[in-house]
Amino acid sequence: MQKTDDPAGAAGPATAVPAGPPVRRVRAWPLGAVLVCAAGATAVLLLPAGTRWLEHPAVQAWRTVSLAITVQALPFLLLGTALSGAINAFVPAGLFTRVLPKRPALAVPVAGAAGAVLPGCECASVPVASSLIRRGVPPAAAFAFLLSAPAINPVVLTATAVAFPGDPAMVAARLLASLTTAAVMGWLWLWLGKEEWLRPLLRHRHTGHRHGHSRWTEFRLGFRHDFLHAGGFLVLGAMAAATFDVAVPGSVLDAFAGSPWLSVPFLAGLAVLLAVCSEADAFVAASLTGFSPTARLAFLVVGPMVDLKLIALQAGTFGRAFAWRFSAATTVVAVIAAVLIGGALW
Q1: How many angstroms separate the Cα of 159 from the Cα of each of 68, 106, 165?
Q2: Residue 213 and residue 7: Cα distance in Å, rounded?
Q3: Is the Cβ–Cβ distance between 294 and 343 less than 8 Å?
Q4: Is the pLDDT score of 52 beyond 70?
Q5: Cα–Cα nearest to 309, from 249, 251, 230
Q6: Using CA atoms, how far apart are residues 182 and 111, in angstroms rounded to an integer?
Q7: How far is it, in rounded angstroms, from Cα 314 to Cα 130?
Q8: Any idea what the Cα angle at residue 162 is, between residues 157 and 168, rounded to 5°?
Q9: How much is the pTM?
Q10: Strands (E), 149-203
């Protein structure tokens, strides 16, 4: 008697024993595609200037910030979804499990350090981390990579050095605090994380090259699905960040700058709400001259790991149950790491 291990079903006798529950197919137009279409239609409706309320400075500022955040993040989202599709179609399934240490506790810091090789922002790391999990990488290691990649890659560290000339301590502090946060969050997932918090589709979906399918076809389908799905949540996050940017007056910044106890959590929260790309957040932090170096370090550590567009992307990719828990815990760990390392350096 012949058995099959292929979840999709392999050719064989009628008496073949099924390997498990059938795999749910992914529709070509997921929720993210609908959100992208809706956001595009809204943008088209807002373009005409004939309606007076559309000409209000606050509305124009909101449109500008929304578009700026989306355009700023879009190239990195394209990079991330392209990498995700390439991993899914061309990389052998067992490669990552062979490269990483067998013990998950050791795989976490190795994956966190590997984040230095991806020159992108947080929008790129989410689809790549999702693809790594589907290829057999332990979720804890994939999440450590997700957090570290947008914070410690060479482009971000170089931008930090340019934004803080003559202050190498800020670059070193950002590197150490970000790596520490990524590793701690990976270990926390090993200790407290539950697989049921992830989307069932992510837990059970078989990916990679399938017999009889062109690898380029697999790449194209995977890229289209990931980009349309993540793109809608990126637009949602950009709109939320723009709303905060327009609604909160600049005088609020001055009110918190003078308090050593409130400045750190305030800038950490500001990083979440502003959703500035990690390639450019160092220049924003450098402009906040009224705040202490430790508070600005918290801004630099939290921002690439937790912001509105990233929360939206995580919710769309991994599920809301994961996104809220993981984002809240990451914020706390990142602030603690920034305070401890910043206090030791300044």
Answers
A1: 19, 30, 10
A2: 16
A3: yes
A4: no
A5: 230
A6: 9
A7: 9
A8: 65
A9: 0.71
A10: none
